[in-house]
Amino acid sequence: MATLATAVLGGCTARGNDGDAPPSPPAVQVSKLRAEPTVLWDSFTGRVAAPETVALRPRVSGYIERVAFTEGELVQQGDVLFEIDPRPYRAREQAAQAELARAQSQLKLADSEARRARQLLDGKAISREQHEQRDAARAAAEAAVNAAEAALESARLDLQYTTVEAPISGRVGRALVTRGNLAGANETQLTTLVSVDPMYVYFESDQQTLLNSRELVDSHTRPEVRIGLAGEDGLPHRGRLDFIDNRLNSQSGTIQFRAVVDNPDGRFRAGQFARVEMPVEHAHAALLVDRKAVLTDQDRRFVYVVDGQNRALRREVEPGREVDDRVVILSGLAAGDRVIVNGLQRVSEPGIAVRPQSAGSVEQDIGNQVAAANHFSF
C-alpha cells in the first residue's frame, strides 16, 4: 500500500514539474491582407409597391346586385367582380333599337322619294327646288340613322358596364360597397386591385452615393440588388434596378431608385418595408478583413496584427463599407499585414507573443489544450 502511495505522489510530482515549464504562446488564426478588386454595396430602406394599382369605380350608376368575388383573393383580368342591376339599361337598349328601326324606315322612304324626284326633274314634271328638298330629306334621314346607331352602341356599352370586370390580374381588396347600395358612375369606389407579380421596391439614396455608383447604375445592364423583408435572415431575394428618377428631391437631397423583383409565391405585399443592398462603387484595390477582427474601444476601431517577431500589436483602423462578412479598411493597414481573425480572446494584452497558424491548426491546438487541461486536473 505504501508503495502505491509513493508511486502516485511521484506521478503528481512529475506532472507538477512539467506544469512549471513556461506556457507556449497562444495559437491564433491570421489573414494576410491583399488588395483585391471589389464591388462595394450600400444598404437602404425601401418600400414595396405594386406596378399596377386600380381604384375600381363603375362606369354607370345603379344599385349593386351582386358582389362576385371573395375579398383578398387573386383574380384574373376579365373576372366578374360586381354586377349592377341591368334592367334599366336593357330597356334603354331596346328603346335605342326601336329608334334605329324607325330611322331606317324613314331613310328608306326618303331615298325612294329622292329617286322619284330625280326622274320627275328629268321629265320637267317638278321644279329643281322640289328635287333639292327631297335630296335634303334623304340626307337628314341618313343622319338620323347614324345617330340612332350611335345611341344603340352607347346603350349596349352601358348595359355591358353593368358587369364590372377586373381590368388587371392581381389581388383584390375588400368590397367597399355591398349588395343593395347605390353606386354612382365614376364616383363610388367599389374596391381596390393590385398586381402581385412582379413587384417594385422603391428606395432613396443621397447625392454622393449616386455619383459614386454612376459607373454601375448608368450602364445598359442595370445591376442586381439584394432584398430582404422583415423577419427574414439576410437578403435572400434578388431583384434588378430598372428605374432612376430624373431629378433629386430638393428638400431631402435624395434621388429615388426602383428595383423590380419576381414574386411568384406572393411573399411581397404592397406597403411592406424592405431592406435593400445596391452596388454603389467598384474599388479596384480594396483591403478587406473579417468583420470579427475589427474591435471597438469606445469610439475607436482597431485590429490586432502580427509583426515579424510574432507579436500581437494593436493597430487603429478606419473601417468603411461592409462586403458580405468582411469590412473594407480605409486606413490603418497595408497589403501584406497579418491580421488576427480568430483567437482574439487569447490575446491578453498588446505585444504578447502568439503563434500564427491556419484555421485547421488553431482548432487542433485548442483541442490539445483542452485535453491537456483535463489531464492535469485531479
Automatic annotation (TrEMBL):
Output the Gene Ontology cellular-component terms: cell envelope; plasma membrane
Domain Multidrug resistance protein MdtA-like barrel-sandwich hybrid as annotated: residue spans: 52-191
Where it sits in the cell: the answer is:
Cell inner membrane
Example GO molecular function: transmembrane transporter activity
Q: Which residues form a coiled coil?
A: 93-158
Residue ranges of domain Multidrug resistance protein MdtA-like beta-barrel in the record: 198-280
- Where is the secretion signal located? none
Q: What membrane topology term does the record carry?
A: Lipid-anchor
Gene Ontology BP terms = response to antibiotic
Record Pfam families: Beta-barrel_RND (PF25944), BSH_RND (PF25917), HH_MFP_RND (PF25876), RND-MFP_C (PF25967)
Q: Superkingdom, according to UniProt?
A: Bacteria
Chief localization class? Answer: membrane
Q: Does the keyword Transport apply?
A: no
Q: Enumerate the UniProt keywords alphabetically.
A: Coiled coil
Q: Does the keyword Coiled coil apply?
A: yes
Q: What region holds the Multidrug resistance protein MdtA-like alpha-helical hairpin domain?
A: 94-162
Which residue intervals define the domain Multidrug resistance protein MdtA-like C-terminal permuted SH3 in the entry? 291-346
Family of this protein: Belongs to the membrane fusion protein (MFP) (TC 8.A.1) family.
This chain belongs to the protein called Efflux RND transporter periplasmic adaptor subunit
**Species:** Parahaliea aestuarii
Query: What lineage is on file?
Result: Bacteria, Pseudomonadati, Pseudomonadota, Gammaproteobacteria, Cellvibrionales
